[in-house]
Design goal:
two-stranded antiparallel sheet, 19% strand, globular, UbiE/COQ5_MeTrFase_CS, 2-methoxy-6-polyprenyl-1,4-benzoquinol methylase, mitochondrial
Length: 317
Protein backbone atom coordinates (compact mmCIF):
# COMPACT_ATOMS: atom_id res chain seq x y z
CA UNK A 1 0.00 0.00 0.00
CA UNK A 2 2.80 2.43 0.94
CA UNK A 3 4.70 1.92 -2.34
CA UNK A 4 1.77 2.81 -4.64
CA UNK A 5 0.97 5.88 -2.53
CA UNK A 6 4.59 7.00 -2.67
CA UNK A 7 4.60 6.58 -6.47
CA UNK A 8 1.41 8.64 -6.67
CA UNK A 9 2.94 11.43 -4.61
CA UNK A 10 6.16 11.46 -6.64
CA UNK A 11 4.21 11.56 -9.89
CA UNK A 12 2.06 14.47 -8.72
CA UNK A 13 5.15 16.24 -7.39
CA UNK A 14 6.76 15.94 -10.82
CA UNK A 15 3.63 17.15 -12.62
CA UNK A 16 3.28 20.04 -10.20
CA UNK A 17 6.87 21.17 -10.75
CA UNK A 18 6.43 21.14 -14.52
CA UNK A 19 3.28 23.20 -14.21
CA UNK A 20 5.00 25.79 -12.04
CA UNK A 21 7.90 26.32 -14.45
CA UNK A 22 5.72 26.47 -17.55
CA UNK A 23 2.96 28.69 -16.18
CA UNK A 24 2.00 31.52 -18.53
CA UNK A 25 2.35 35.16 -17.51
CA UNK A 26 -1.17 36.13 -18.52
CA UNK A 27 -3.74 37.32 -16.00
CA UNK A 28 -6.12 34.89 -14.38
CA UNK A 29 -9.70 35.47 -15.44
CA UNK A 30 -11.71 33.16 -13.24
CA UNK A 31 -14.98 31.86 -14.53
CA UNK A 32 -16.90 28.70 -14.14
CA UNK A 33 -19.90 27.56 -16.14
CA UNK A 34 -20.50 24.49 -14.00
CA UNK A 35 -23.75 24.53 -12.05
CA UNK A 36 -23.50 25.59 -8.45
CA UNK A 37 -20.16 27.42 -8.77
CA UNK A 38 -20.13 31.21 -8.94
CA UNK A 39 -17.30 33.24 -10.45
CA UNK A 40 -15.43 35.99 -8.61
CA UNK A 41 -14.07 39.40 -9.53
CA UNK A 42 -10.76 39.76 -11.39
CA UNK A 43 -7.50 40.76 -9.77
CA UNK A 44 -6.48 44.38 -9.48
CA UNK A 45 -3.17 45.69 -10.83
CA UNK A 46 -2.16 47.53 -7.66
CA UNK A 47 0.71 45.11 -6.86
CA UNK A 48 2.60 45.52 -10.14
CA UNK A 49 6.26 46.45 -9.74
CA UNK A 50 6.68 44.73 -6.36
CA UNK A 51 8.22 41.33 -5.67
CA UNK A 52 7.35 38.47 -3.35
CA UNK A 53 8.39 34.88 -2.66
CA UNK A 54 7.05 31.71 -4.19
CA UNK A 55 8.85 28.71 -2.77
CA UNK A 56 12.52 29.51 -3.22
CA UNK A 57 11.94 31.98 -6.06
CA UNK A 58 11.56 35.74 -5.99
CA UNK A 59 8.81 36.73 -8.40
CA UNK A 60 6.66 39.79 -9.22
CA UNK A 61 3.73 39.99 -6.81
CA UNK A 62 1.17 39.82 -9.57
CA UNK A 63 2.44 36.36 -10.59
CA UNK A 64 2.10 34.64 -7.22
CA UNK A 65 -1.65 34.08 -7.29
CA UNK A 66 -1.41 32.48 -10.72
CA UNK A 67 1.45 30.18 -9.70
CA UNK A 68 -0.39 29.08 -6.55
CA UNK A 69 -3.46 28.47 -8.72
CA UNK A 70 -1.49 26.21 -11.07
CA UNK A 71 -0.03 24.14 -8.23
CA UNK A 72 -3.44 23.46 -6.70
CA UNK A 73 -4.98 22.80 -10.10
CA UNK A 74 -2.40 20.07 -10.74
CA UNK A 75 -3.10 18.21 -7.50
CA UNK A 76 -6.84 18.88 -7.01
CA UNK A 77 -8.08 15.37 -7.82
CA UNK A 78 -5.47 13.72 -5.55
CA UNK A 79 -5.19 16.30 -2.80
CA UNK A 80 -7.44 14.61 -0.21
CA UNK A 81 -5.89 11.16 -0.70
CA UNK A 82 -2.39 12.59 -0.35
CA UNK A 83 -3.29 14.56 2.75
CA UNK A 84 -4.66 11.45 4.45
CA UNK A 85 -1.81 9.18 3.41
CA UNK A 86 1.10 11.46 4.15
CA UNK A 87 -0.17 13.07 7.36
CA UNK A 88 -1.33 9.69 8.71
CA UNK A 89 -4.72 11.31 9.14
CA UNK A 90 -3.46 13.93 11.60
CA UNK A 91 -4.83 16.78 9.47
CA UNK A 92 -8.31 15.45 10.30
CA UNK A 93 -7.64 15.83 14.03
CA UNK A 94 -6.43 19.39 13.49
CA UNK A 95 -9.62 20.26 11.60
CA UNK A 96 -11.75 18.57 14.27
CA UNK A 97 -9.97 20.71 16.89
CA UNK A 98 -10.84 23.80 14.87
CA UNK A 99 -14.54 22.87 15.04
CA UNK A 100 -14.41 22.20 18.79
CA UNK A 101 -12.82 25.61 19.39
CA UNK A 102 -15.38 27.19 17.06
CA UNK A 103 -18.29 25.38 18.77
CA UNK A 104 -20.85 26.70 16.24
CA UNK A 105 -24.53 26.82 17.14
CA UNK A 106 -27.34 25.84 14.74
CA UNK A 107 -28.43 28.56 12.34
CA UNK A 108 -25.06 30.26 11.84
CA UNK A 109 -23.52 31.14 8.48
CA UNK A 110 -19.91 30.13 7.75
CA UNK A 111 -17.52 31.45 5.12
CA UNK A 112 -14.85 28.80 4.51
CA UNK A 113 -12.18 30.80 2.66
CA UNK A 114 -9.55 28.88 0.70
CA UNK A 115 -11.93 26.02 1.49
CA UNK A 116 -10.71 23.77 -1.32
CA UNK A 117 -12.60 20.51 -1.29
CA UNK A 118 -14.83 21.48 1.63
CA UNK A 119 -13.37 19.68 4.66
CA UNK A 120 -14.15 22.48 7.12
CA UNK A 121 -17.62 23.15 5.73
CA UNK A 122 -18.59 19.47 5.88
CA UNK A 123 -17.51 19.36 9.51
CA UNK A 124 -19.37 22.60 10.28
CA UNK A 125 -22.68 21.32 8.89
CA UNK A 126 -22.34 17.98 10.66
CA UNK A 127 -21.38 19.67 13.93
CA UNK A 128 -24.37 22.05 13.89
CA UNK A 129 -26.76 19.20 13.04
CA UNK A 130 -25.40 17.13 15.92
CA UNK A 131 -25.60 20.13 18.22
CA UNK A 132 -29.27 20.67 17.34
CA UNK A 133 -30.14 17.00 17.91
CA UNK A 134 -28.38 17.05 21.27
CA UNK A 135 -30.22 20.21 22.29
CA UNK A 136 -33.54 18.61 21.37
CA UNK A 137 -32.81 15.48 23.42
CA UNK A 138 -31.80 17.55 26.43
CA UNK A 139 -34.93 19.66 26.08
CA UNK A 140 -37.17 16.61 26.19
CA UNK A 141 -35.15 14.97 28.95
CA UNK A 142 -35.51 18.07 31.12
CA UNK A 143 -39.29 17.74 30.90
CA UNK A 144 -39.68 14.19 32.21
CA UNK A 145 -42.83 15.14 34.09
CA UNK A 146 -44.66 15.62 30.80
CA UNK A 147 -47.06 12.98 29.51
CA UNK A 148 -46.07 10.73 26.61
CA UNK A 149 -48.43 12.75 24.44
CA UNK A 150 -46.66 15.99 25.35
CA UNK A 151 -43.25 14.43 24.66
CA UNK A 152 -44.49 13.20 21.28
CA UNK A 153 -45.74 16.68 20.48
CA UNK A 154 -42.31 18.06 21.36
CA UNK A 155 -40.73 15.81 18.71
CA UNK A 156 -43.44 16.61 16.17
CA UNK A 157 -42.93 20.34 16.68
CA UNK A 158 -39.25 19.83 15.93
CA UNK A 159 -39.78 17.93 12.70
CA UNK A 160 -39.22 21.08 10.66
CA UNK A 161 -35.58 20.71 11.60
CA UNK A 162 -33.00 23.05 13.06
CA UNK A 163 -32.48 26.67 12.08
CA UNK A 164 -30.69 26.34 8.75
CA UNK A 165 -26.92 26.47 9.10
CA UNK A 166 -25.19 27.49 5.90
CA UNK A 167 -21.62 27.09 4.70
CA UNK A 168 -20.07 28.84 1.72
CA UNK A 169 -16.86 27.28 0.40
CA UNK A 170 -14.85 30.02 -1.29
CA UNK A 171 -11.66 29.17 -3.15
CA UNK A 172 -9.68 30.75 -5.96
CA UNK A 173 -9.29 27.40 -7.72
CA UNK A 174 -12.36 26.06 -9.49
CA UNK A 175 -10.79 22.59 -9.87
CA UNK A 176 -10.57 22.19 -6.10
CA UNK A 177 -14.19 23.32 -5.79
CA UNK A 178 -15.23 20.88 -8.49
CA UNK A 179 -13.70 17.98 -6.53
CA UNK A 180 -15.33 19.25 -3.33
CA UNK A 181 -18.73 19.49 -4.96
CA UNK A 182 -18.40 15.89 -6.18
CA UNK A 183 -17.52 14.82 -2.64
CA UNK A 184 -20.60 16.61 -1.28
CA UNK A 185 -22.90 14.95 -3.82
CA UNK A 186 -21.41 11.54 -3.05
CA UNK A 187 -21.92 12.12 0.69
CA UNK A 188 -25.50 13.26 0.16
CA UNK A 189 -24.87 16.82 1.35
CA UNK A 190 -27.38 18.71 -0.76
CA UNK A 191 -28.59 21.57 1.44
CA UNK A 192 -26.92 24.40 3.30
CA UNK A 193 -23.79 24.33 1.15
CA UNK A 194 -22.66 26.49 -1.75
CA UNK A 195 -19.45 26.84 -3.76
CA UNK A 196 -18.00 30.17 -4.89
CA UNK A 197 -14.83 30.92 -6.85
CA UNK A 198 -13.28 33.87 -5.07
CA UNK A 199 -10.05 35.57 -4.03
CA UNK A 200 -9.37 35.94 -0.29
CA UNK A 201 -8.00 39.43 -0.98
CA UNK A 202 -11.17 40.57 -2.76
CA UNK A 203 -14.09 38.50 -1.53
CA UNK A 204 -17.21 38.59 -3.73
CA UNK A 205 -19.58 39.18 -0.80
CA UNK A 206 -21.30 42.18 0.75
CA UNK A 207 -20.35 43.56 4.17
CA UNK A 208 -21.56 41.92 7.41
CA UNK A 209 -22.74 38.65 5.86
CA UNK A 210 -21.19 35.83 7.93
CA UNK A 211 -21.12 34.70 11.55
CA UNK A 212 -17.86 32.77 11.21
CA UNK A 213 -14.89 33.10 8.85
CA UNK A 214 -12.38 30.26 8.58
CA UNK A 215 -9.21 29.85 6.57
CA UNK A 216 -7.46 26.51 7.05
CA UNK A 217 -3.99 26.03 5.56
CA UNK A 218 -4.70 28.87 3.16
CA UNK A 219 -3.39 32.12 4.63
CA UNK A 220 0.17 31.26 3.56
CA UNK A 221 -0.95 31.19 -0.08
CA UNK A 222 -2.23 34.77 0.03
CA UNK A 223 0.02 37.42 -1.54
CA UNK A 224 -1.15 40.26 0.73
CA UNK A 225 -2.09 38.76 4.10
CA UNK A 226 -3.06 42.13 5.57
CA UNK A 227 -5.59 42.63 2.77
CA UNK A 228 -7.07 39.16 3.33
CA UNK A 229 -7.49 39.95 7.04
CA UNK A 230 -9.24 43.22 6.19
CA UNK A 231 -11.61 41.35 3.88
CA UNK A 232 -12.34 38.81 6.62
CA UNK A 233 -13.26 41.66 8.96
CA UNK A 234 -15.44 43.30 6.31
CA UNK A 235 -17.62 40.28 5.52
CA UNK A 236 -18.11 39.22 9.15
CA UNK A 237 -21.14 40.43 11.07
CA UNK A 238 -20.53 42.39 14.29
CA UNK A 239 -19.82 39.70 16.87
CA UNK A 240 -18.57 37.37 14.16
CA UNK A 241 -15.52 35.19 14.67
CA UNK A 242 -12.31 34.80 12.66
CA UNK A 243 -10.48 31.45 12.86
CA UNK A 244 -7.25 30.55 11.10
CA UNK A 245 -5.67 27.07 11.15
CA UNK A 246 -2.11 27.17 9.87
CA UNK A 247 1.37 25.70 10.21
CA UNK A 248 3.39 27.25 13.01
CA UNK A 249 6.95 27.41 14.31
CA UNK A 250 8.14 24.02 15.57
CA UNK A 251 10.83 24.07 18.26
CA UNK A 252 11.05 20.35 19.08
CA UNK A 253 13.81 18.90 16.79
CA UNK A 254 11.99 15.59 16.21
CA UNK A 255 8.68 17.26 15.41
CA UNK A 256 10.49 19.80 13.25
CA UNK A 257 11.96 16.96 11.20
CA UNK A 258 8.56 15.31 10.75
CA UNK A 259 7.06 18.66 9.81
CA UNK A 260 9.71 19.33 7.16
CA UNK A 261 9.16 15.89 5.65
CA UNK A 262 5.42 16.43 5.46
CA UNK A 263 5.38 20.00 4.20
CA UNK A 264 8.32 19.98 1.80
CA UNK A 265 8.62 16.45 0.44
CA UNK A 266 5.20 14.83 0.57
CA UNK A 267 2.72 17.55 -0.31
CA UNK A 268 4.03 19.72 -3.16
CA UNK A 269 1.43 22.41 -2.54
CA UNK A 270 2.79 23.04 0.94
CA UNK A 271 6.43 22.70 -0.03
CA UNK A 272 6.22 25.21 -2.87
CA UNK A 273 4.43 27.90 -0.92
CA UNK A 274 5.33 27.61 2.74
CA UNK A 275 9.05 28.03 2.02
CA UNK A 276 8.40 31.63 1.08
CA UNK A 277 6.35 34.43 2.60
CA UNK A 278 4.66 32.48 5.40
CA UNK A 279 7.99 31.78 7.14
CA UNK A 280 8.09 35.30 8.56
CA UNK A 281 4.57 34.93 9.98
CA UNK A 282 5.04 31.54 11.63
CA UNK A 283 5.84 33.21 14.92
CA UNK A 284 2.56 33.14 16.77
CA UNK A 285 2.79 36.59 18.34
CA UNK A 286 3.66 38.19 15.00
CA UNK A 287 0.56 36.83 13.32
CA UNK A 288 -1.53 37.65 16.40
CA UNK A 289 -0.46 41.29 16.09
CA UNK A 290 -1.36 41.31 12.39
CA UNK A 291 -4.88 40.09 13.20
CA UNK A 292 -5.25 42.76 15.88
CA UNK A 293 -3.98 45.47 13.51
CA UNK A 294 -6.64 44.39 11.00
CA UNK A 295 -9.27 45.37 13.60
CA UNK A 296 -10.08 42.13 15.45
CA UNK A 297 -10.44 41.93 19.23
CA UNK A 298 -9.88 39.22 21.87
CA UNK A 299 -7.24 37.64 19.62
CA UNK A 300 -5.65 34.46 20.96
CA UNK A 301 -3.99 31.33 19.62
CA UNK A 302 -3.86 27.62 20.45
CA UNK A 303 -0.95 25.28 19.70
CA UNK A 304 -1.66 21.78 18.38
CA UNK A 305 0.63 18.74 18.07
CA UNK A 306 3.63 20.31 19.73
CA UNK A 307 3.40 23.52 17.75
CA UNK A 308 3.28 22.01 14.26
CA UNK A 309 0.06 23.93 13.69
CA UNK A 310 -1.78 26.68 15.53
CA UNK A 311 -5.29 28.11 15.54
CA UNK A 312 -5.66 31.89 15.78
CA UNK A 313 -9.01 33.30 16.86
CA UNK A 314 -10.42 36.83 16.92
CA UNK A 315 -13.76 38.64 17.02
CA UNK A 316 -15.29 41.56 15.13
CA UNK A 317 -16.92 43.93 17.60
Amino acid sequence: MAAPIRKLVLRVLSDSTRNIHHVSRCRLKHSCCRAGITSCREYSDSSEGRSTHFGFQTIPEEEKAEKVYKVFESVASKYDVMNDAMSLGIHRLWKDSLLHIMNPQPGLRLLDTAGGTGDISFRFLEYTRSMYNRQQRLKVKSQQTLSWKDITNQYISGEEGPPESRAVVCDINKEMLKVGKQRAEKAGITTGLSWVVGDAEELPFDDDQFDIYTIAFGIRNVTHIEQALQEALRVLKPGGRFLCLEFSKVHNPLLASLYDTYSFQMIPVLGEVIAGDWKSYQYLETFKEMIEEAGFFCVQYFNLTGGIVAIHSGFKL
